[in-house]
UniProtKB/TrEMBL annotation:
Domain L27: 1-49
Underlying gene: LOC109096270
Guanylate kinase-like domain sequence ranges: 336-525
Domain SH3: residue ranges: 154-224
Stated family: Belongs to the MAGUK family.
Organism: Cyprinus carpio (Common carp)
Domain PDZ, first and last residues per copy: 66-147
Protein's recorded name: MAGUK p55 subfamily member 4 isoform X3
Keyword annotations: SH3 domain
SMART domains: GuKc, L27, PDZ
Domain of life: Eukaryota
């Protein structure tokens, strides 16, 4: 059409100015290209035109795809495997979020023929990997596509890591560089579980979009079986402090003891002397329950026993690799979450709890313990203690009602799980301090505990802030902190974190007591009001 119009204009003897202008426009290269594109689209003449096939083309030759990727300093995001019989290389897996995955041009099972014009068949895997690592800029692949397989997209699975893992120390991982290291307590998003041994995941709140390989639960069970066959069986034991009856009088001296006992016998005196104050007209429940008088020993040397544990606390903490978690937002009508404080002896866990309850006793409260001793004048059953007979106490022990219990001065003392629930049912927030080996007993769907670990500051800072506190009694026994105490607190903290940090929802460093109290208040408020990741089993239906 354009050519016909231009020919007609040229054939005019005396063309008008409009005809001349039209001729100039149609002669313009840009206009000609526009009209040519319009004609091609109108005629649907825009498909690729392939050259004719050669006459003598082998029937068994496979179709080949040429893939060009632009690689800078980022990894390729794919792993390869070699068929030892044929010498061919294949794409083993494509890492989610990596360069190969974002390109959409490489798929698991594709046969790798060439890399930058060099054939790879028969080469050693290390040689091919080195070629890929050293390549920068454009990388040209020639691959024979795998038969396309339709796979359903898998929903993401959110888990909490229950163990530490380093791919560089795992000889079983197919590609250590593609692995992802994680630590106890890390939250992971698993995006691909198609491989029975190796999953693809990334850490939550990570800036990297590229996933990494992590061992699957099947792989973990396989490694566990190997360890069980190669190592002698070791029965699980819990750690409990020595009771007063287990320490001879000749072993207790003013120089080598640390005392925790009923508050009516001993009083902890701080620098400000605030611990001896009493609130006017208001009794703070839940503090007259310390059951232990024990010799100062390192955490690792205490007597092993399950004496103070509940029925479910004897649990191997390394039995699972991941714990599935879900996002939980506490409803305003739900009972408050149990607040559990954990920390090494001497770090100030009980003092933080005492101050928190003293500041707002209408909101926070501790559990009320059971005892077999006689009720004293001025005491009220259910306020200072639940006073019970020895027969009732023994019945509660047999039926696993106590989280922890012990004997002091011939009387039994115990803290029951029901006492936690009683506080929560009253609408108050129950705040307890707990030995770490009892975590499993309170980690239930009913209590939904929020576990706060109180970490000690540096030894130098501890010497500054804990140089004056001591214990006083009616016999005027004084016990100051020594350098060895600070070393043992630090060692106990490292041991406790290494074994139990996967259960910690929050960590507070008890540097300055007032600041730590504010941090504790903020953490508790966050636990009650903000969304949290909690075990998915807490939402599972109860089995009949």
């Amino acid at each position: 059409m354009m050519i016909m119009i231009m020919a007609s204009v040229r054939g005019l003897a005396a063309p008008s100015s409009e005809a001349q202008e039209l001729y100039i426009l149609l002669k313009c290269p840009h206009m000609q290209a526009l009209l040519s594109a319009h004609d091609s689209v109108a005629q649907r003449d825009y498909g690729p035109v392939l050259p004719p096939l050669p006459d003598k083309l082998p029937d068994n030759e496979e179709a080949m795809r040429i893939v060009c990727l632009v690689k800078n300093k980022q990894p390729l995001g794919a792993t390869i495997r070699k068929n030892e019989k044929t010498g061919n290389f294949f794409i083993a897996r494509v890492i989610h979020g990596g360069l190969a995955d974002r390109s959409g041009l490489l798929y698991p099972g594709d046969k790798l023929v060439e890399v930058n014009g060099q054939k790879v068949r028969g080469l050693q895997p290390e040689h091919v990997i080195q070629m890929l690592v050293q390549s920068q800029g454009n990388i040209l692949f020639k691959v024979i596509p795998n038969t396309p397989q339709t796979t359903k997209s898998q929903p993401a699975l959110y888990v909490r890591a229950m163990v530490d893992y380093s791919p560089l120390q795992d000889p079983a991982i197919p590609c250590p560089d593609a692995g992802m290291a994680f630590s106890k307590g890390d939250l992971l998003k698993i995006v691909d579980q198609r491989d029975i041994r190796w999953w693809q995941a990334r850490k939550l709140h990570s800036a990297s979009l590229c996933c990494g390989l992590i061992p699957s639960t099947n792989q973990f069970r396989y490694k566990q079986r190997e360890l069980w066959w190669s190592q002698p069986y070791q029965a699980h034991t819990c750690i409990r402090p020595l009771s007063a009856t287990e320490v001879g009088e000749e072993e207790i001296t003013d120089e080598n003891k640390c005392i925790e006992t009923d508050e009516e016998d001993f009083e902890f005196v701080s620098e400000e002397g605030e611990n001896g104050e009493h609130m006017q007209g208001l009794y703070i429940a839940g503090f007259r329950h310390s059951l232990r008088v024990w010799r100062r020993k390192s955490y690792s040397k205490r007597k092993p026993s399950c004496y103070s544990c509940g029925v479910s606390s004897c649990h191997n903490t390394s039995a699972t690799l991941y714990e599935e978690v879900v996002h939980y937002q506490r409803h305003i009508d739900d009972p408050p979450r149990l607040i559990v404080l954990i920390g090494p002896s001497g770090v100030g866990v009980n003092e933080l709890r005492r101050r928190l309850i003293k500041i707002n006793p209408n909101t926070y409260q501790g559990p009320i313990s059971h005892t077999t001793r006689s009720q004293k004048m001025g005491e009220k059953n259910g306020r200072e203690y639940h006073f019970v007979t020895k027969e009732v106490f023994a019945y509660m022990v047999v039926n696993h009602k106590f989280l922890e219990y012990g004997e002091h001065n011939g009387h039994m003392y115990g803290t029951s799980l029901d006492s936690f629930q009683d506080v929560l049912d009253s609408g108050k927030i129950c705040v307890i301090d707990l030995e770490p080996h009892c975590i499993h007993s309170v980690r239930t769907k009913k209590l939904k505990p929020y576990i706060i670990y109180v970490r000690p500051p540096s030894p130098a800072r501890m010497k500054q802030t804990r140089k004056d506190p001591h214990f006083l009694s009616n016999r005027y026994i004084k016990r100051y902190f020594y350098d060895k105490d600070f070393e043992e607190i630090e060692e106990a903290s490292r041991t406790m974190e290494a074994k139990y940090r996967q259960y910690f929802d929050c960590v507070i460093v008890n540097d300055d007591l007032q600041d730590s109290c504010m941090d504790l208040f903020t953490a508790i408020q966050h636990a009650q009001e903000e969304p949290q990741w909690i075990p998915a089993s807490w939402f599972a239906p109860d089995h009949p």
